[in-house]
Amino acid sequence: MAEQPFALEISVKFAENGEVKQLNKDYRHKDKPTNILSFPQVQRDLLSGLANSDDGEILLGDMILARDICIDEAKDKDVTLSDHVSHLLVHGTLHLLGYDHDDEADALIMEALEVRALKNLGIADPYADQSQ
Fold first, then answer.
1. Were both Cys, which of 7, 38, 50, 74 would link to 81 (CB 3.0–4.6 Å)?
2. Would you state the pLDDT for residue 132?
């Protein structure tokens, strides 16, 4: 990651499930709904050199959440919508920062970072019940 602190901007949109499904099909070639999509604005190899400019914050990227999927998932997980959306935003932000979960090792790294960030927000580990 970057050596110096800098301010970031991320745009977040709640959308209808159909819009997110179409974006998932168009950009990821997956014709199915998903809870959140992240669209980085900074190439992964340029992340380490980020610094604020005279223009202010750096636009790291965009995230779009499927509103009804988020609501349903929160109910299924028996967590508040706020906690679930917070988890998804942390997850999406990590994607914008170049993290992924394509293999088990990367998934474990990403999950550990999510758990740590959520703990700082006072939100319980969303993966805790999966190990039982």
1. 74
2. 45
